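Hi, here's the filled form for the chain we discussed.

Project: internal
Contact: R.S.
Residues: 302
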Amino acid sequence: MQPLIDALDRTVIEGIHRDPFQRDPELVREYLPALKAWTLYFGAELRGWENLPAAGPYLVIGNHSGGAETNDAAFFMARWIEEKGAEAPIYGLAYDLLFGLPGVGKFLPRLGLLPASPENARKALEQGAVVIDFPGGDYEVFRPWTHRNKIEFGGRKGFIKIALETGVPVIPMTIHGAHQSTFVLTRGRELAHRLGLERLRVKVFPLIWNIPFGLTPAYVPSLQLPAKVTVQLGKPLDWSHYGPGAAHDERVLESCYREITGVMQRTLNELAREHPYPVLARLNELRPINILRRILGRQKVK
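And the returned structure, exactly as it came back:
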């Protein structure tokens, strides 16, 4: 195990220190059909698009869901490319480990993914770009299934410091249903520590109920259930009145943290009441009679 961790550690370090700003609009455009297919599978509905500022820079902050096959960024990105075009500057902050994977690590920057660091986020915002961040990271994306309707950033406030330092607005992006597509049993934090994965900046070794393989580590590919996904973009949060110096004031950081997680938790609660059983809701949408009704309804509108 240790030789493998050593090798991965070297490739991750190499990956995150390459120039990440290699976004290729043509490749982004070619990736749109895959994003739309993912969106269609989950019947994703995105609301609140009118809450986005007309132009960047700004931060979009989302709750992370879906386990290893996380799907939550795809829904926003599909709409972004269709509405704004592939050339419109947007970047996503991603897990360091991904940039050390053979082949994948060199491909991700061309799609606009950056190793998640304050320096990369600031540089993108300085260019007038939009930055998507999921502060909960592996802690939230691998939260147990029983916590599926909870916002769990794990106390991480780095994005708040960046917003305060740069003065950019923050758009809360609350996603419901995505975490019901998989069954995470435990984060496995103690197991990750025992395996020495912290060297790879990995603090979890989650276990899931894998379809079709049963109990496995989350990194074994599994089938995600078609769960009805709803994405709600909230109104911008403006913390610029605090000033850049507030980025070092723990009281301000805690206040902003409570504000955004409170807004997102209330929104998530509302969405959960609307669709308490996302998998059943999506399966109902996929019934032939309901598909036919939607087709006929669109024809009438035309």
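Let me know if anything looks off before we file it.
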